Amino acid sequence: MGERKILVKKEKKAYVKDLEREFVLSGFEKHYVETTKDYHTKYGVIKRKDLLRKPGSKLRVGNHEFIILDPVFLDHYKRIRRLAQIITLKDIGAIIANTGLTKDSVVLDAGSGSGALACFLGVLAKKVVTYDINEKSVKITCENVEALGLKNVFVKQGNIYEYKQVKEKNIDVFVLDVPEPWKAIRTAQKVLKIGGFLVVYLPNLNQVQRFVKALPEEFLLEKTVEVVEREWLVDEKRIRPKTKDHAHTGFLTFVRKLREEDKNRGVNKKKLG
Ligand SMILES: C[S@@+](CC[C@H](N)C(=O)[O-])C[C@H]1O[C@@H](n2cnc3c(N)ncnc32)[C@H](O)[C@@H]1O
User: Fold this and answer.
1) CA distance 120 to 128
2) How far apart are CA 77 and CA 25, in angstroms?
3) Of 38, 96, 156, 253, which has the most beta carbons under 10 Å away?
4) Ramachandran angles phi, psi of 248, nearest 5°
5) Is 161 close to ligand 1, i.e. is its CB under 6 Å away?
6) pTM of the prediction?
């Protein structure tokens, strides 16, 4: 990803006594900057040698002040290439917390999409294997994995509904962000270790219900949750939610494998559609 720095400029405000109001003169800014050349801002140029100063250094450009920081994983992650919908940070947090994912966990993920979830889990887990049926998704995911320098994230093209195509075994956490996860239950039976977690991410409750109805007895349905994050505006004058409406992302359903599949009975074939 090359050498990068973060430049932060704090919000500038002024209180006008006569109007009894505070005005924002210039907003908060965060720049993700390459250090191989000078950086041009709308306030003027920052020289390359200044970008190389130590974290916490202040740089003046005209009347404006920037502070230099070294980027952390999250700064790089926020710059990854994106195809359509990527999983949100609030939902990633819930997946990690509710599966107790650690540095020893081996994770299977499908579909990769842009690889957002796979990459985030990749910095925490021992190993992540991610599948997508779509060639373009596989390509973008590979690019993102490489850009983030992740050596433990492996990208495969394949159909997660076809359990014979999926060779992984002894998986601790299996995350499904695909349109018809009930078709991947057979795959979950095959790949998960006993006690391993299956997490299903779905936008609609009717899909969640269909998935739950298709679950065979070898699985324990722990819970379905929706994570609602509400950002607040807090300053000297105001304390209120930042936005009126909360965008819905999806429902997370957490399931645990209790034992191996009952071979005599097979999967609930009737229920899988
Ligand atoms: C919403 S995206 C996943 C986003 C991803 N979780 C992320 O954070 O970037 C859904 C992906 O599932 C893939 N997909 C759909 N059906 C699939 C299947 N049967 N097997 C594997 N991938 C599939 C699609 O190609 C698409 O890229």
Assistant:
1) 10
2) 30
3) 253
4) -80, 135
5) yes
6) 0.89
Is residue 124 in contact with ligand 1, taking CB distance under 6 Å? no
Q: The domain spanning residue 80 has which CATH number?
A: 3.40.50.150
**Ligand 1 in contact with 133 (CB < 6 A)?**
yes
User: Which residue's alpha carbon is nearest to atom 25 within ligand 1?
Assistant: 134
Q: Is the CB of 85 under 6 A from ligand 1?
A: yes
- In angstroms, what is the span from residue 217 Cα to ligand 1's centroid? 26
Task: Please indicate whether residue 132, judged by its CB atom, sits closer than 6 Å to ligand 1.
Answer: yes
| Number of independent structural domains in the chain | 2
Q: Are residues 204 and 145 in the same domain?
A: yes
**73-88: per-residue pLDDT in tens?**
999 999 999 997 889 9
Strands 127-132 and 106-110: parallel
Question: Could you tell me the distance, in angstroms and rounded to a whole number, from the CA of residue 178 to the centre of ligand 1?
Answer: 5
Give residue-wise pLDDT tens across range 222-245: 999 999 999 998 887 889 888 766
Task: Give the range of the structural domain holding residue 236, as residue numbers without chain letter.
Answer: 75-257
Q: Are residues 67 and 116 in the same domain?
A: no
